[in-house]
Amino acid sequence: QVQFVESGGGLVQPGGSLTLSCAASGTSRIIFSIYVMDWYRQAPGKQREWVATITNRGSTNYSDSVKGRFTLSRDNAKNTVYLRMNNLKPADTAVYYCNKQSSDYWGQGTQVTVSS
């Protein structure tokens, strides 16, 4: 029943920053608060790649490629997860998706393009 809508993508220069948002609908704040949330990304011609995870407790894990540059957070009162991306690199260019773990339903994602 839950749906996730990603937003905040765009064109940014290398070294720049973006903040992505993932808004959940079709669920209560209490239910959302227990979701373990993932961010994935998919570059053209590549498989979807795991980026980061935030637990219901707010603890986070990051892929090696983004560790130290990306920060995942959540605001359960707003049913929203955020991905702050700093020091962006061209290799970060991809469509970014959010989802709860164990879900096979994916939204449209939001495009992030890092280019000069």
Your description of this structure?
The termini are far apart. The model has no long low-confidence stretch (mean pLDDT 96). A 6-stranded mixed sheet has the order 2-10-9-4-5-6, with no helix packed on it. The chain has 116 residues and is mainly β. The protein contains 1 helix and 10 strands. The longest helix has 6 residues, at 29-34.
The string of secondary-structure elements, in order, is EEEHEEEEEEE
Q: List low-confidence stretches.
A: none
Largest sheet, if any? 6 strands, mixed
Q: Helix/strand-derived class?
A: mainly beta
Helix content: under 10%
Give the C-alpha Rg. 13 Å
Number of strands: 10
Number of helices: 1
Provide mean pLDDT, rounded. 96
Cα separation of the termini: 40 Å
Bin the strand percentage. over 45%
Backbone shape: globular
Question: Which strand order spans the largest sheet, edge to edge or round the barrel?
Answer: 2-10-9-4-5-6
Task: Give a brief description.
With 116 residues, this protein is mainly β.
Please describe the structure with a list of short key phrases separated by commas or semicolons.
116 residues; 4-stranded antiparallel beta sheet; globular; 1 helix; 6-stranded mixed beta sheet; mainly beta; single chain
Task: Record the SSE blueprint.
Elements: E1 3-7, E2 10-12, E3 18-25, H1 29-34, E4 37-42, E5 49-54, E6 60-62, E7 70-75, E8 80-85, E9 94-100, E10 110-114
Parallel strand pairs: 2-10
Antiparallel strand pairs: 1-3, 3-8, 4-5, 4-9, 5-6, 7-8, 9-10
